[in-house]
Backbone:
């Protein structure tokens, strides 16, 4: 697995880097193509609190977690546990679908994506609309249940995907009442 460890307001010492690689490396047992997997780790320190963010993009899934703690090493431990729970939850959920199709190992194959799927935010300034960020990503074929799981793992309010049954682009979103909505074309 390749590690990209960055620090904000903190110097990434060899000891911290080694600890991150050791802890995140425990997740390698879930991956199919370990050498191609990329783990993007961002370490931040603000006012005696340490924040760790980890993003691991894969072919059918993007693992992402954030954790804050007073101790950097404790935050790394907590985020590893959180990522492992995400993987187990996802495997359990999709395992029911793939029992007859064989192994689910390809779900945890590494990918070459460099950014997680994200919306293009717009900022309205008087009478002019300006695109301030543009991201491109591949739409993965899945059903709405998998898309909701992926959206929740990313911590987003919506998720764009290709419906595996109809082969059309759909959007699932979290409603204000906590339930989910689905937008699909006619």
Residues:
């Amino acid at each position: 697995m390749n590690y990209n460890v960055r620090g904000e307001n903190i110097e990434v010492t060899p000891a911290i880097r080694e600890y991150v690689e050791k802890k995140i490396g425990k997740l390698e047992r879930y991956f199919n193509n370990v050498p191609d997997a990329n783990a993007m780790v961002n370490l931040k320190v603000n006012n005696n609190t340490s924040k760790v963010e980890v993003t691991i993009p894969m072919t059918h899934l993007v693992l992402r977690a954030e954790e804050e703690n007073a101790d950097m090493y404790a935050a790394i431990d907590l985020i590893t546990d959180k990522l492992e729970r995400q993987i187990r939850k996802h495997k359990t959920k999709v395992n029911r679908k793939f029992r007859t199709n064989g192994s689910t190992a390809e779900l945890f194959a590494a990918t070459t994506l460099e950014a997680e799927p994200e919306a293009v935010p717009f900022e309205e300034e008087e009478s002019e609309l300006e695109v301030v960020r543009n991201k491109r990503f591949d739409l993965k074929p899945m059903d709405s249940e998998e898309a909701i799981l992926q959206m929740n793992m990313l911590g987003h309010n919506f998720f764009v995907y290709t419906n595996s049954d109809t082969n059309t682009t759909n959007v699932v979103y979290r409603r204000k009442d906590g339930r989910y909505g689905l937008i699909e074309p006619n």
About this structure: The radius of gyration is 18 Å. The chain has two domains: 2-98, 135-186. Confidence is low (pLDDT under 50) at residues 111-127. Residues 2-98 form a domain with the Double Stranded RNA Binding Domain fold (CATH 3.30.160.100).
